[in-house]
Amino acid sequence: MNLTAIAEQYGTPAYVYDLAAIRAAHTDLSAMLPGPAKLYYSLKANPHPLVVGQLHRLGCHAEVSSAGEIDAALAAGVDAHHILLTAPGKSAATVSYALRQGVRRFSLDSPVDLRRVAWLAEQSGTDVRCLLRVNADQPVAGLGLTMTGAPSAFGADASWIEADPAQFRGGGRVRIEGLHLYMGTNIADEDALIAQFDTAAATAQRLGPVLGELIEVDLGGGFGAPYAQTGSRPLWPSLRPRIEQVLDTRLPGWRDARPAVAFESGRYLAGSSGSLLCGVVDVKTSKGKTFVVLDTGINHLGGMAGLRRLPPLRPALAVTGPDDGRPTTRTTVVGPLCTPLDTFVRDADFPEVHPGELLAVPNVGAYGLTASLLGFLGHPAPVEVVCDGDTVLDVSHLVLAREPGPYDPAVTAADPAVGSLV
């Protein structure tokens, strides 16, 4: 991709996504996972319809967590039966919307979640197939951001399920067909990946006799990749045989899909595809310190990092074009927002730049725009340019608009299942 040409034609700030990079990431990850495994793409990483559509055509199912992500998956061409709705706080409105859109698979986090889905499925005359989200009883060391294995809002503790399985077996229109285990995220170390998959598979092995036949076990993912800094996606050449060894030990019928094994990824599949182009608006000195002011900030990149929902943002912004021999100076790089929190780089060595120059932040195809504080201060969203190599396929931008009434006027804010839950 010629980032300079894209910036000249479409302006900055601009997100640029390369579908060729997404295909390469999918090829690499697929080669490192057991052959029969299903792979979910987590739309929270990047719900752009061309990104989702490319991964769907490569065979990925969609893991979504909201009505908006359901819409994004359907708009990208994903069949509703290939969508798995997850999240610990699925409201009655969200579940009802999913059912009306044809979604028939849910990951359930608790008995209340199960009964809510069951009630709404019965009301709509719809059969659904569900996974139980499980919080393993033991933590795994070395995870970038721990999701389970500790007190957690995600899933039901394995010991709870084991002690009171009747609450988790489903019935009526709800069939519990498997387990959903997601231990952590942004894991770059192969040993840590194997440790979490072994813990997840051991938990499934333990709960299978309690719950009955498991049709699918989703072992999660957490495959790490660089974020907002230079670097390449890690490759784990021995990951596949090591996972296969774990599965042969813990879930010996997996090669014949008894149970079928699934994994999920967002960051690894989409991260390397994206760059954020930005312009230098100002360079100034304050009390002996140099500040570079950009036309983009945490409203467009890394807002969740500031909320400690992503690793701390330490991007290496690279000048697009030759910068050999360019001197560096201690610099703080900030965005245009009226808050000191809008800081990309704080007092670090940085190439000397000048107003009007173009910078690029690499590896932001995942957890970029939609993981940011887009509504803060009302700046327009960056243009999003989708390429396939050097060919521009699509140019668009998000718009935040106020409309009267709820998102879906057919659904009230009240929970119709609440009477059956207490």
Which descriptors would you attach to this protein?
single chain; 422 residues; alpha/beta; TIM Barrel; Lyase, Ornithine Decarboxylase, Chain A, domain 1; 2 domains; nine-stranded mixed sheet; eight-stranded parallel β-barrel; 12 helices; 21 strands; 27% helix; 25% strand
* Estimated share of beta-strand residues: 25-35%
Identify the CATH homologous superfamily of the largest domain.
Alanine racemase
Please identify the structural class as seen in this structure. alpha/beta
According to DSSP, the number of beta strands is 21
**CATH domain fold name of the largest domain:** TIM Barrel
Quick structural gist:
The protein has 422 residues and is α/β, with parallel strands linked by helices. It is 27% helix and 25% strand. Helix 5 crosses helix 6 (111-124).
What does this protein look like?
The protein is an alpha/beta fold. It has helices spanning 3-10, 19-31, 49-57, 67-75, 92-100, 111-124, 158-163, 190-211, 239-250, 267-270, 303-306, 418-421; strands at 14-18, 38-42, 61-64, 83-85, 105-108, 128-135, 145-146, 156-157, 170-171, 174-180, 184-185, 216-218, 260-265, 274-286, 289-294, 318-319, 328-334, 343-351, 358-361, 383-388, 391-396. The longest helix has 22 residues, at 190-211. It folds into two domains: 19-270, TIM Barrel (Alpha-Beta Barrel), CATH 3.20.20.10; 272-396, Lyase, Ornithine Decarboxylase, Chain A, domain 1. Helix content is 27%, strand content 25%. It starts with a helix and ends with a helix.
